[in-house]
Amino acid sequence: MMNSPNVVTRLKESRIRNSRSRTSQDNDISSNVAQRSLRDNDNGSPTPSNERINIFGQTRNAQQQDYDGDASSGSHTLSVASSHRQRRKSAVATHQPIEQTNGMFLQPETHPITEEQLVNEVRAIYAGLVMVEKKCIDIVKQQSENPEELTVLQWQALTALHRTLLHEHFDFFLASNHPAANKSLKALAKTYSMPARMWRYGIHSFLELLRKKLPSSLDHMHTFIYMAYANITLLLESVPDYKETWIECLGDLARYRMAIAEVDMYDREIYTSVARYWYTKAADLNPDVGRVQHHLAVLARPNLLQQLFYYSKALVSVQPFTNARDSILLLFGPLLDPAKAAAKYSKYYPRALTVFVEAHGVLFTRQDVSTFLRLAEEFLSELDKHVGLVGPLFREQGVYITASNYAAIFDYGHDGAEIPSMFDQAGLIQTRTFEILEQAYRSWQNPSCVQVGIEHRTVGINSSEQVVSIASHFAFTTLDVILDRLGDRNTLPSVHVSLAFLWCMAMVPESMARIQADVPWERLATYLNTLINPDTDMAEIENGAFPAQESGASRQLPEDFLIHGLSWSRMYYPPNFFSDMAEDDERSIELPSVIVPRTRRCLWLASKIAKFNCWLVYDTESCKFCATQFAHELAALSGQYQILCQASNGKPGTDTVMTES
């Protein structure tokens, strides 16, 4: 018992010696592994990815020999690309780590890359990229014409080939955008259209081949979409100069993933939301590009009204997307087909909105005017009831309806449409808005009580001038029904859009002369007066600048994002108004306080229109808007060519006042 402390001490010393011995052995093992790894790399040992790609050398039956030849060539291409990467590694000078006596390594010494080395690096990357790209094009073209199904190994090889192409593109973008790169080197990606080539040959063509071979290629399509999505995400973070392109590519990939989720509707909804998220970001960055609006229209299915809005917006954007003409016919086709008349009205979708879209289909395709009038009157008769039923949902629906009607006034951007050309010729950019406004004030000093083309609306729907006249009549008859709901704040967003449209049209007098008689000026004045409260400072609103908060989520109203990018809305917003925007998921959340800036915006627009002293005037003593004598003369002119009845009372040309309940 007396010796027990000595025994304990000896045991502790023994454990310490054993622990030190094991630590030393572990360090030696780690050092040996690291040295073997360095020796393997110096000897040029093949990478695991190259070993996986080289599957085409395996023996298969005679029916696959033709494909094996191309695939072996593809493997050779990958080997050449790999050798280019090995040469690129040796081009950058590095020093071997210095081994210390204790088995540890110092940090490797590095030297800044010279401009010549960087140029050689980019040249070597591009050489390998071109070879892999050519092989991808050849094999995809060959397999697109091949009716036979591909084996699992063949799909894996094709996926590996396209993965290599994406990696080569990634290396090219990183090298050409290196901090040491000069301007000419950084411009190479744009000069050689590298983002477009990467999407076309590295992703899109292979996705189309996979889609063509469905359902056998479903798993491989999933794998490739996930891999391409990760690659584009890295480019979004690493090469932000092409941010708009990467964001749209991510939206396209998510839409492909959504399209193949035919069974699992939960997955389909998820990837629809992902695609919409990216396309909304793309629309924020490029609001004038109609192509992005077309993408959003595709995602809007099966919402007929939302599809109509986005398709029509794609056609009347600052940069219209003409391919949307074919896509919008897919929307109108089932509605206009007599054989499908019984199935076009769903109990799960409001009939009034279906009839509205159908009426636009008749107007777009320029069919019989009697069919349009029947559908338009049915919609107008149901509109007031529909607004009351859907309640707050009409805030968004009302904007879709109103903006689609104004797209019809622009004749959906058809070739030869009159009003879009007027806006293009005016050179409407934000920096010239003040000059354009001054010219408009001078033009409206002596207005004429005419509306160009109003006499053509009873003839038919054969020309652009007739479409504009009928669309104007329909749009402002719809507005008349909406304005009749006094006190209903759910109609305020659509009224806001209408006032913005009238304000922009007034700045282009030639366009305003084609719609001014159809506008219900008297009803509009009555509606505006309900927005003026005793504490409303109309003097500040009338003489102030564009009413917008300096920052924050409420700087823009929800409808601002919907009409942003339309050819007529360019003059409405001040410069940098959309520089600070809320996230997409925050825009749909409308707080009760939003009614205050929206009301101020409507009153500000009305005061600006009143300064023309043509259609509306504002009486500072009574603090009320009222229609001018000129507006009453225009109403009498419009009454002579009335072809639609106002659904509020069934009689054209009269006003009714609706009291708040």
Architecture overview:
With 661 residues, the protein is mainly α. It has two domains: 67-90 and 114-285, no CATH class; 308-639, no CATH class. Helices cover 62% and strands 1% of the residues. It has 28 helices and two strands. The protein has helices at residues 4-42, 48-53, 65-91, 115-144, 152-176, 183-186, 188-191, 194-212, 218-238, 243-259, 265-285, 290-299, 304-315, 324-336, 351-365, 369-390, 394-409, 418-425, 433-443, 464-483, 492-506, 509-512, 521-530, 538-543, 558-563, 584-587, 595-610, 629-639; strands spanning 616-619, 624-627. A two-stranded antiparallel sheet has the order 1-2. Strand 1 (616-619) and strand 2 (624-627) form a beta hairpin. The longest helix is centred in the first third of the chain and has 39 residues, at 4-42. The protein is globular and about 95 Å long. The model is unreliable at 1-12, 15-77, 89-99 and 647-661 (pLDDT under 50).
